[in-house]
Amino acid sequence: MSSSKRLAGTSLSVLASLLLVSAAAAQTAAPAEKPAEPKTTEKTTEKADEPTTITVTGAKSQNRIDRQVYDNSKNADAAIGTAADTLNKVPGVTVDANGNVALRGNTNVQVYIDGKPSAMMQGDNRAGAIQAMSGGDISSVEVMNNPGAQFSSEGTGGIINLVMRKNRRPGGFGSANVAVGDGRYNGGVNGSYTVGKISLNGGINYRDESGTGRTTRRLINRDANGNVVSRTDTNGEGTGGFTNFALNGGIDYNLDDANTLSAQVTYNKREFTSEGTSLSATYDALGATTQRYTNQSRSKNPGSDQSLALTWSHTGNLPGETLKADLRISRSTGGSEFVNINNFTLPTVSTTSDTKVSSRALSNAVFSIDYNRPVGTDQLTTGIQITRDDNTVRNESTGIGADGLNNALLSSSFQYKQTISAAYATYQKPFGEKWVVLGGLRVENLDLDTLLVNTGTRTSINYTKVSPSVFATYLLSDTAKLRFSYARRLQRPNPQALNAAITYVDAQNVSQGNPDLKPQETDSFEVGYEVTKPKINYQIRGYYRENNDVITQTSRFLTGNVLLTTQENGGSSTAGGVEVNVNGQVTPKLNLSLGGDVARTELTTPANGTQEADSVNGRMNFTYTLTPKDTLQAFFFARGKTLTGQGYTEPFGMGNITYARKLTPKATLTVTVRDPLNTGKSVTYTDTKTVYSESSRSQQASVFYVGLRYTFGGPAPANAQQNQMRMMGGPGMGPRPGGM
């Protein structure tokens, strides 16, 4: 047995033993006397798993020792918007026109659903899911810039956790919404019903959107001395759209005062379609036209997601003692079909066609056990997690002028099976009345097997990584505190990035994976100053990240001006900056939220040397109460320059403006303008010794929405509250276990 496997086995055994001993203690510990109800006090106490709530009129915000929590219920356009719209309102988070999510400009970020990974949010699925998911299904967004040991070490950019809405009030409660806009409409119904020991919740949503867009690209082929060999210019425009149907349902059942069973199922079906026309012209070094053609393209990208979550929650005899077992199973299937017809006028008049058909089946299963218990005034959390991925990706392409026959060099079937076994422990301890420290250690073993079916090539990867984390809070006063944090993170290559087969993209581009990729490692540091007052709160945070074995893209030309793009490890990077967020009630009618950060990034790669970039990111969100029945809400964000390893992406920004009118106590009318300044445009530059390119993509101009939301039902009598509080983790449930 290799040393890495021995280390993995030993480490996991030690931490698993700790978990089992602690769990056994939960069953045998003598019942503790329940503490008296605490008196109301102005003093703030910091706990890892009990949120410290910051209340600002018009916006609910919670900060915990290891994360920031942002409430989505106050967003006037939440019901008619998408998950992308919701995330763009969260400080530090941006989603571009392609659905790419970034946290402080870093796209190596993980997106969880209810605290766990999901096949829906992995690989190529994520962008489509973010753009299609209803924002009204999201209750809150948790942002962890430096996630602790209870979370997977994957994601050097941090973790964004989408907490889904359940509406579990005692009695019956629900809402219905419908919205119509320029070439789009959506609607949905959500509700819950709680009686006795049972709570039911569910929802159904449908969305149909279409729009137009433009693309431009300039691609320059250089020789080894940097001289221009050829230049290709492309200008295109087209239409695109998507439909999305989502269904979810859940049940919670209180077996007794100490045990609760929960089940949640989701189903999601979506399809993206597009049609476009473009004109391409290629010029030689002297500027003479050597090739000219028009391209007509169409594509279809269907997909579906299913998930099942089963949870057992147990409350121990000690105050704050909990044991939780959780099983999540999700599956995502989909495919794509691209057809291109090229009509050449130079060098000769001719017509060619090419097609690409791909399919994917991604299965993900996560099993975890988390145990949380007090140790005097301290808090211990331990847990294990096993994550299994079993995926297949197939690509079939004809290539240019192949008369409908598959090109074996451009077609492949790639399979990978990945198991990540992890165990963690965290310990929180107060030091005097001012300090609270939370330390943690996570051990993860990865076992990955891949198979390239075409060639029968198999690869196996096995390694163990240890990820420490530390959080500390110092109370300066009843309203001010300092925060410190450190975490070690990994960015594992997407298994598809290990696929050595060449994948056809279009007539000018192909891609290829690299089976020798290693994980990128990041050490992340952060210090913050927070002030919380009745009408205003603000945070100032400084952060620094050091990355090694950075995964970057590399490009080179093949014959016929075809560009091959792959990935490689190489070099290192650093990133540091200062982030400021201010939230408050400026006047009795105006609530304002402002945020931004100034950052500097330095990236060094073997092929391109050192790149440096200074960027400024900003965000503004305000709510103005015009009358007791009329509200105006607006938000705008701007993301700064981002390095890519071979170049950079230009700054860009977007925004929404929403007017809400309360027609009755239960009915609200909304009017929304999306991207009112028409700034939804992304531009990317690539600049190496042999390749230079400029690519831009802009979406449809401002979009108008008119929506209506109606709520129905109401809470049950007050005596029904007791059972419900146990279901929601209230009194009698104790703090959440560390695993979420």
From TrEMBL:
<keyword id="KW-0472">Membrane</keyword>
<dbReference type="InterPro" id="IPR041700">
    <property type="entry name" value="OMP_b-brl_3"/>
</dbReference>
<keyword id="KW-0998">Cell outer membrane</keyword>
<feature type="region of interest" description="Disordered">
    <location>
        <begin position="292"/>
        <end position="313"/>
    </location>
</feature>
<keyword id="KW-1134">Transmembrane beta strand</keyword>
<dbReference type="InterPro" id="IPR037066">
    <property type="entry name" value="Plug_dom_sf"/>
</dbReference>
<feature type="region of interest" description="Disordered">
    <location>
        <begin position="26"/>
        <end position="61"/>
    </location>
</feature>
<keyword id="KW-0813">Transport</keyword>
<protein>
    <submittedName>
        <fullName>TonB-dependent receptor</fullName>
    </submittedName>
</protein>
<feature type="signal peptide">
    <location>
        <begin position="1"/>
        <end position="26"/>
    </location>
</feature>
<feature type="domain" description="Outer membrane protein beta-barrel">
    <location>
        <begin position="318"/>
        <end position="710"/>
    </location>
</feature>
<feature type="compositionally biased region" description="Basic and acidic residues">
    <location>
        <begin position="34"/>
        <end position="50"/>
    </location>
</feature>
<dbReference type="Pfam" id="PF14905">
    <property type="entry name" value="OMP_b-brl_3"/>
</dbReference>
<keyword id="KW-0675">Receptor</keyword>
<comment type="similarity">
    <text>Belongs to the TonB-dependent receptor family.</text>
</comment>
<dbReference type="InterPro" id="IPR039426">
    <property type="entry name" value="TonB-dep_rcpt-like"/>
</dbReference>
<keyword id="KW-0812">Transmembrane</keyword>
<dbReference type="GO" id="GO:0009279">
    <property type="term" value="C:cell outer membrane"/>
</dbReference>
<keyword id="KW-0732">Signal</keyword>
<dbReference type="InterPro" id="IPR036942">
    <property type="entry name" value="Beta-barrel_TonB_sf"/>
</dbReference>
